[in-house]
Amino acid sequence: MAHGALLDHLSALLDREGPAQGALAHSPSGLHFLRFTAPTGQDATVYRPLLCLVLQGAKEVATSRRTLRVADGQSLVVSHALPVVSRITEAAPGRPYVALVFPIDLDLLRSMAADVAPARAASQHDPFSISLCQTDLELEGALLRYLGQCDHEDSRRLLASITAREIHARLLLGPHGEPLRKLLWHETRGSRIFEATREIQSDLARPLVVGDLADRVGMSSSAFFEHFKAVTGTSPLQYQKDLRLLRAREALRSTNEKVSEIAFGVGYESSAQFSREYARKFGVPPRQDRSVHAAE
Predict the structure, then answer these.
(1) Residue 210 and residue 208: Cα distance in Å, rounded?
(2) CA 170 to CA 138: how far, in whole Å?
(3) H or E element: which one contains 171?
(4) Residue 10: which of 30, 35, 28 has the closest Cα?
(5) Nearest 5°: phi and psi at 213?
(6) Are 106 and 49 in contact (CB under 8 A)?
(7) d(CA 117, CA 177)
(8) What is the DSSP letter of 58?
């Protein structure tokens, strides 16, 4: 019942406030809603810590390590910032793809650490930073109440923050809990890799020395490389490269900077190398991508 009620509520909200197709950033709740009436092509982006709940239709999310299919009633949780390629695979005018994205507040999550049992040993759990499972009805019910509370100013001020805390608690208690618990304590490998990814993101133009980064998070170079790849699905250098290219594409589409300036700004020393790697990742060279996007 909660699943159908949440789908109805979200569909009505999109009819009232959102586009017929595409994404809506819903400022009262801080959530993002998506609705598509047809399958889409691949889109490269960065998933930051979040819950994505598919209410209708299906999508694929891929990294260099694996591809996950998320169908209606399923949800995925991303525990680390992760470059991914995604596409909507099931959507139709009469049955559109509908999903919501709930950002995970890591500070709020960590404030619960004292009341949470420590994570199990790493050998008992897949360390990959995306977990996929059926969404429990209690979590869907909490999301429905949260959205309802965000509809009115008084309940948004007095109740929504309480329900947001409940949603985070249910994530820790539910089937997605294990990868999130590993972020609560700084000495865990998951938390150390999280700190490493955050440091890479903080200055993409800075040359990456894997050994130095391993030292800063308190791991040997070999252990750091192994666990970084297990968590993110890619090597530290490839992770940085993917983020550089995604940052560059965002700048190409939102500014009038020269391609060479954008390339140097994200850390490339050669604009020719940047153009080759950009075309390899996105299918078209930077200048052509900019002109196509401007014409849309």
Answers:
(1) 6
(2) 8
(3) helix 161-173
(4) 35
(5) -65, -40
(6) yes
(7) 11
(8) E
User: Residue 31: left if φ>0, alpha if ψ -120 to 50, beta else—which one?
Assistant: beta
Name the CA radius of gyration of the chain, rounded: 20
- In our burial notation (b when 16+ CB lie closer than 10 A, e otherwise), range 274-289 reads bbebbeebbeeebeeb
Residue holding tokens 């618990």? 181
For residue range 115-159, list pLDDT tens digits in order: 887 655 444 567 888 999 999 899 999 999 999 999 999 999 999
CA distance 176 to 182: 11
The pLDDT tens digits of the residues spanning 212-270 come to: 999 999 999 999 999 999 999 899 999 999 999 999 999 998 999 999 999 999 999 99
The pLDDT tens digits of the residues spanning 69-105 come to: 999 999 999 999 999 999 999 999 999 999 999 999 9
Residue 124: both structure tokens together: 């008992």
pTM summary value: 0.87
Indicate the fold that domain 186-296 takes in CATH.
Answer: Arc Repressor Mutant, subunit A (1.10.10)
Residues contacting residue 248 through CB under 8 Å, at least 6 positions apart? 262, 263, 265, 266, 274, 278, 286
241: tokens are 């490269």
Domain chopping of the chain, boundaries: 2-181, 186-296
What CATH code would you report for 2-181?
Answer: 2.60.120.10
CA distance 245 to 61: 18
